[in-house]
Amino acid sequence: MALSSNMEFFLDSFGQNFPAENNGTLDCISIALSCAFNRQGTLLAVGCNDGRICIWDFTTRSVAKIISGHVHPVSSLSWSRNGQRLASSSTDGKVCVWETLTGEIVWHFNFSVVIMRVQCHPRNMDQYLILPFKQMGIVLTIGRKSFDRLRGEDGADDYHTCVTYSRRGDFILTGNQKGRIVVIRSDNVSTIQSSFQIVTQAQTGIPIRTLEVSRRGENMVVNAGDKVIRIYKIADVLQGHGHTEIEPSQRLQDLVNKNVWKKVFFSGDGEYVCAGSSRTHQLYIWENFTGTLVKILTGTKGETLMDAAWHPIRPIIVSVSGGIVSIWSQTHVENWSAFTPDFRELDENVEYEERESEFDMEDEDKSVTMEVDEQDENDDVDVVTLEKNAAYCSSDEEEDDPTAVLFIPVIPEIEEPEMDNWLADVSSGTAASIASGSGKGGKGGGEAKRPKTKKDPAAQPGQAKRSRLDSESAGSKRAPRPH
């Protein structure tokens, strides 16, 4: 009985790993259109309608930096692996790369068409993947005068509808309007690693809207035009050749409303798949391994979802709809109940029955196997060595990056100081100022005008003698102190 109660307690506390309710909004400076988390989830970049980029400190829910570099709406955002750079694209065809700490531009290029997506290489922050509207994808490296254009399989009339990097950036996965997925090597864009066709009931091909790879790189989710979400194993995708048909591990869809999906992405641990409707502000969450719909998050009625992102570590989703950034998190209910020594929850007072050997120095009822497995109290515990955080390190051989930008220091805006006025205190003979700062120089920052000081008595002996006599005469006239 106690074991079953303990299992129920732990399942209720730690079993739910997805958001369940709205936890407030972020009031941006303008109409929000796109969003992206950095790798650690400490910073959130939001692209606005007026071309500005607002970087939020997600821990304190405050604005850390505002970058103004675009004139038209920001269409896509992407962080580098260490968070030192932020890439952005706008609808006027401008692609920019920014320094996160300073907000200065590192590189920019103007294309003649609308840029649908920009993505930083997972391992090289000087290489970027760009998708122009109704054109083939482009691989661009900072420092090179030319860029590499990706190739397709179906002739010159074909174009890419979505592109994305693999987890480590070794491959580039592309999808076209005919339902074909092509995997290209990133070190040599002319080499095709594999390709396959999406299996559909209709004979004609369907366009692929989005492609996303899980954070751990094991699965890939495909959002196609037939309103069905397909999940593939990356190992199976890399082995496809020619006209090979690969069966997806999961098929997810809304059988009731027949929703067309605007955005599809994985959770940080890859256990859940979230899809946002293109008609309403609704987020559907499925379990990846079973394909079970576990939650539907509904926002404000009448709004349309523009973008969404899952926090890399925590069960939090950020969605952009109606120009406002909404935050979805878990439901936290305060529980003031008590627990028994075996962690069984109590709703009311219960008389506790003490065991016979509970407070004995040596427990006679304890088994021999427990004594063998018991850890020695004299063993040294290592409290110095830092263990690798598996959530931050997506590769087994890598350590935490010491150069990663986790937070942006906020520089306070100091107002211009007013003109200082020095006032002479007649009673004390000292000078006081109303406020600290510069004096007559004011804005120039010159030296403050100080009150005149008394001359050195050593320079004028006669004057010093008179002042000494005056002080002695004044001291003789003083009234004696009462005893």
How many individual helices? 4
| Amino- and carboxy-terminal Cα gap | 87 Å
Report mean pLDDT, rounded to a whole number: 79
Q: Any idea what the radius of gyration is? A: 34 Å
The total strand number stands at 32
Question: Fraction of residues in helices?
Answer: under 10%
Unreliable stretches: 1-13, 419-483
What is the percentage of strand-forming residues?
25-35%
Largest sheet: 4 strands, antiparallel
Shape: globular
Main location: nucleus
Biased composition (Basic and acidic residues): 446-457
Organism: Hypsibius exemplaris
Keywords: Nucleus, Repeat, WD repeat
What does this structure look like?
The protein is mainly beta and 483 residues long. It has helices at 2-14, 234-238, 368-373, 461-476, and strands at residues 21-26, 32-37, 43-48, 52-57, 62-68, 74-79, 85-90, 94-99, 105-110, 115-120, 127-132, 138-141, 148-149, 160-165, 171-176, 180-185, 192-197, 208-213, 219-224, 229-233, 250-252, 261-266, 272-277, 282-287, 293-298, 305-310, 317-321, 324-329, 338-339, 345-346, 422-424, 431-433. The protein is globular. The protein starts with a helix and ends in a 7-residue tail after the last helix. The relative contact order is 0.11. Residues 1-13 and 419-483 have low confidence and may be disordered. Residues 430-483 are annotated as: Disordered. WD repeats lie at residues 36-66, 67-108. It comes from Hypsibius exemplaris.
